[in-house]
Specification:
about 425 residues; alpha/beta; Rossmann fold; 2 domains; 7-stranded mixed beta sheet; globular; Methyltranfer_dom
Length: about 425
């Protein structure tokens, strides 16, 4: 494994921050009320976007959460695995003892027995206990002294055929954040105590000028309403990089990785935001990377990039969605609920963060979605629709378009074999 020291003065300050204000702020007593659902590390997403819906669900899944914080992603995956009786184990590593205490308490509140915790730094490769089918590193790389070196260490910890779920900050959707960070660095230097710095930040926010760009940016509800930890993480973090999609893809390449999916895929297709036919024709001539770069700069509201990644050249190709034996599954929202959101003109208003875009769907979508239950095959759904006067040939034409659109929105996926 690659080894490196990977620490500096700002890294020491970062460690102090997360010990004082573990992020995100969570109360284990609330575990009985809700399960936070998100990406990456949703079990159905891992099955589909990492393993191409080809890895049997009976195979044990060994997962690492590299920098688990207070445990949102790890608790979600552990709960999903327990509920679906999936074999495997989840190992959480974080250097903040305070954060791990919260994550442990959350796991205990849910009676999760498939999850364990290790206190240690990702800059010390010996911290990682073995190799893994799946690694989550969400909201971590952009705070590290040497993100590329750490990513290489994680790549070396992947088992053959494995993959990762990553999240890094993006610059344009964080407009206003770095300006305010700069101001606060002068008003309350990193050398001051975290409690002092937080007090100064609160005072600034109470009287923030109306012209401050952060006031115009609606992407930060979770940070601005997330208590002391949220505010500190947003405005006082001693090291906070942001990656354009191009810079993020370059980082992956240097680590020997490539994306199997940018989440959600449609978000990175500018034709969705450019209804003008002439503009769409130009988009179609672009490479996949160029499209992603245009989408980011055009929309301006991507505050993060979430991706599933695999070793370069090892991306798994999912089965044909029109295979009669394929089993479609809703990623989270039941099909009948999603069908209710479709407008009379057969468009689905879809929120990409703060941007709502009408996504066109086949007119038969409302009737097909409620039939997707994670058990019926595509062939069985076709037979039901045939009884409703939709010929088999027409069904597969409609289904191909429907699946393609909703897969790109990460709403309909294919189930892995038993």
């Amino acid at each position: 494994m690659t080894t490196h020291s990977g620490t500096d003065a700002r890294d020491t300050e970062l460690a102090a921050q997360y010990e004082a204000y573990p992020y995100p702020e969570r109360d284990p007593r609330e575990e009985t009320k809700r399960l936070l659902i998100g990406s990456p590390s949703h079990l159905r997403e891992i099955d589909y976007w990492v393993f191409g819906a080809r890895r049997p669900r009976s195979h044990p899944l060994r997962a690492l959460f590299a920098g688990c914080g207070t445990g949102d992603g790890a608790i979600m995956l552990a709960t999903q695995m327990a509920r679906s009786r999936r074999p495997g184990e989840i190992i959480c590593v974080d250097r903040s003892g305070h954060a791990l205490t919260i994550a442990k308490s959350r796991a205990q509140a849910r009676n999760l027995t498939n999850i364990s915790f290790i206190q240690g730094s990702l800059t010390s490769p010996e911290t990682l206990p073995g190799q893994f089918d799946y690694i989550d590193c969400c909201g971590v790389l952009h705070h590290l002294p040497e993100p590329l070196e750490t990513l290489k260490v994680l790549e070396e910890a992947l088992l053959p055929g494995g993959g990762m779920g990553l999240m890094v900050y993006a610059p344009y959707g964080r407009t206003g954040v770095y300006m305010l960070q700069e101001a606060l660095e002068h008003l309350t230097p990193f050398s001051e105590q975290p409690s002092t710095r937080l007090d100064i930040a609160r005072r600034v926010m109470r009287t923030l000028p109306a012209t401050a760009w952060l006031r115009q940016n609606g992407n930060f509800g979770d940070h601005l309403t997330g208590g002391d930890a949220g505010l500190y993480d947003l405005l006082l973090n001693p090291r906070d990089r942001a990656y354009t999609i191009g810079a993020f893809l370059d980082l992956l390449t240097k680590a020997g990785l490539e994306p199997s999916c940018l989440m959600e895929p449609a978000r990175y297709d500018p034709s969705l935001f450019l209804p003008d036919p002439k503009l769409r024709a130009r988009v179609e001539t672009m490479s996949w990377r160029e499209k992603a770069e245009v989408a980011e700069t055009l929309t301006g509201n991507m505050a993060t990039h979430v991706a599933y990644v695999v070793r370069k050249g090892s991306r798994a190709t999912p089965p044909d969605c029109c295979d009669p034996m394929a089993v479609p599954v809703m990623r989270e929202m039941p099909g009948d609920e999603l069908a209710k959101q479709i407008l009379p003109n057969s468009t689905l208003p879809f929120s990409f963060g703060t941007l709502v875009v009408p996504v066109p769907l086949p007119s038969q979508t409302r009737g097909i979605l409620p039939l997707i239950d994670g058990e019926r095959t595509v062939g069985a759904i076709a037979a039901i629709m045939q009884e409703r006067s939709l010929s088999e040939r027409k069904f597969f034409t409609v289904w191909s378009e429907l699946f393609s659109r909703l897969e790109s929105l990460n709403r309909v996926l294919l189930l892995s074999p038993v």
